[in-house]
Amino acid sequence: ARRTTVLDRTVVGAIVPVAVAALLAAAGPAAAGTTGGSGAGDPYFPLAGNSGYDVRHYGLTLRYDPGSRRLDGRAVLTARATRDLTRFDLDLRGLTVTALTVDHVKAGFRRRGQELVVTPRRPVHRGRTFRVTVAYAGTPGPVTDPDGSPDGWIPTDDGAFVAGEPQGAMTWFPGNNHPRDKASYDFTLTVPEGRTAVANGVLLGSRTARGWTTFRWRQTEPMATYLATATIGTFRVHRYTTRDGITVYDAVDPREAKAAAPVVRQLPSVLEWESRMFGPYPFRAAGSVVDHAPNVGYALETQTRPLYDSAPDLSTLVHETAHQWFGDSVSLTSWKDIWLNEGFATYAEWLYAEQHGGRSAQAEFDALLARPASDALWEFPPGDPGSGAHLFGTPVYARGAMALHALRRAVGDRTFRRILRAWATGHRTGHGTTAQFVRLAERESGRHLRGLFRTWLYTPGRPHLS
Ligand code: ARG
Ligand code: ZN
After folding, report:
1. Which pTM does this prediction carry?
2. ipTM of the modeled complex
């Protein structure tokens, strides 16, 4: 492995680049450390993400025809090598790659399952920023998650519902498909005139020519791949700016408009309330996409602009909006920690209800605790759901929220709120782990809380409360 670091770059680059790269790639164990890994090290999804580089920016240019369901794409990734790379992987499922360059030079590539294995003409040196351009095309479709739900590019009768948690991003663009690696994005989306293509962040502009409309979107703050969207449909669009200067863009399928209107309208007041509870809203843009996608069965907290498969109720809007702080801004480093997303977003629903004339969080907690030991709520502990099949199971949401309520009871309301805010602001647009959250809660409260978290997050079965 040391050999590459000893080789002078100019020698590698100028004299025998192809031979050296081939040699290193073929050298097996001797070349370890010069090829990127096929996964990010997530035990639930071993092939999700890759190692050896960090993506800084995705530039995605897509054209989609809902009639033929054909997608033509070009992805330009700007990445930094975290080790010398003779070879590295991207994640991409299905679709056909038609051309691939690294720093504008044609590179070798092959497909192996969801891995797109790239061999650049010359090794990319550690610390270097490099650019990968992938041209691809095909008929995208979703993957089926371990829990049976569709995930990724999900065609609808008038476009596509595009959601990627936990794995689906690789069904429509090549990338480093794990929340550990966040990046900024530019989207250039072309769809037939009359359809609207909605992505994350701010709309820079749109133009129609010869029957096609191109929408340009920019997501500046770092985003995990699963939170990217390019949802296409026949939408009614409403744009405005909140009192806090946040740009709001709502897109609503006319079939859902009547039910959606009274809920979607409350976004500014929900954002204000959550900003008071959790600290400043982490992004410059916001909004909602309400699609009509009866085959989906869930909503997703797509960054800046949650995506609903039908008109949401207010509690769901509160939940997806809370994810902007918990999950989108403060992101997972491992899917095992999913309760940091779902437990927090669920607890936000409880807090919202409590402060808006609904049930108290205590009543919510008590009702859940009264469920029999055989209930699905106690099927597994939320701190380690055990596999990808349980990521979105009841314990992750409800018992995750119960863990937070138990914390609140132990430390008191004021300290609890300080902990939530410190979590959201201290890890803003970054990452967090359960261990870090436990340490933060102990620091802010000056108490030993390991026992409490062990009980609520890691102990199988219904907790025995003394
Ligand atoms: N994170 C979404 C929520 O707000 C749920 C996503 C479910 N996705 C899935 N593939 N089952 O709760
Ligand atoms: Zn959620």
Report:
1. 0.93
2. 0.98
